């Protein structure tokens, strides 16, 4: 068995206000038994406006669900209207922050350099970055998927210490599989996650590559999670649409039962 503890993360994107967030978190907690967390981490990533409410219910009921955010700014503070910093998230007991999601790259112009700065900011606040990478359909069809993902991983990890890389999470999410209902085959997902691991080995050494957790993301559902998780280099999943429903997300988290 792998020494890497799998992590299943729910990226809610811009869904659920703070009232809905409390209900969804409580339902998820009731659906998951203690044994579901044995050797598997579960995180949820609500919108910023929900974080304080969700932190409070997680704390009050001593839930084993980790709190995550979807983004942050690279600077600690300053004149950045509308932005939220990593130290602000850390104060809310946020443990994990998604960085460089393809929607942020495509819709908000995030570059590898910006992603790299955010990775460093998240680490500096003692949180875990979930750094996303993934190719477009055109890049896949042109045979450029591995090269694209390799350059995103190299750019995102530039100047990050090997022991920090070891504790990070990298999410491989082919853009053509996100929200489309079209999942990568488990063989393709495995091949790409293995490719990501070999880039990590090149930039941070084999020990870091052995420890770094690599998630697959893109139309993960209760029906395909077990097959994906059976692959050697897939250490978890970043789940969008199916994480909004606590029943579906609980079944995904309980993929071993
Ligand atoms: P999806 O989204 O599960 O709805 O495809 C995944 C993601 O964007 O992280």
TrEMBL record:
Swiss-Prot/TrEMBL keywords: Cytoplasm, Gluconeogenesis, Glycolysis, Isomerase
One matching Pfam family: TIM
Domain of life: Bacteria
E.C. number(s) listed in UniProt: 5.3.1.1
Catalytic activity: D-glyceraldehyde 3-phosphate = dihydroxyacetone phosphate
Enzyme class: isomerase
GO CC annotations, alphabetized: cytosol
InterPro entries attached to this UniProt entry: Aldolase_TIM, TIM_sf, TrioseP_Isoase_bac/euk, Triosephosphate_isomerase, Triosephosphate_isomerase_AS
Pathway annotation from the record: Carbohydrate biosynthesis; gluconeogenesis; Carbohydrate degradation; glycolysis; D-glyceraldehyde 3-phosphate from glycerone phosphate: step 1/1
SUPFAM superfamilies: Triosephosphate isomerase (TIM)
Gene Ontology MF, one: triose-phosphate isomerase activity
GO biological process, one term: glycerol catabolic process
Active site residues of this protein: 101 (electrophile), 173 (proton acceptor)
Protein's cellular compartments: Cytoplasm
Binding site for substrate: 11-13, 179, 219, 240-241
Summary of subunit composition and partner proteins: Homodimer.
UniProt function note: Involved in the gluconeogenesis. Catalyzes stereospecifically the conversion of dihydroxyacetone phosphate (DHAP) to D-glyceraldehyde-3-phosphate (G3P).
Family label: Belongs to the triosephosphate isomerase family.
NCBIfam families (UniProt xref): tim
Descriptive protein name: Triosephosphate isomerase
Lineage, opening ranks: Bacteria, Bacillati, Actinomycetota, Acidimicrobiia, Acidimicrobiales
Gene that specifies this protein: tpiA
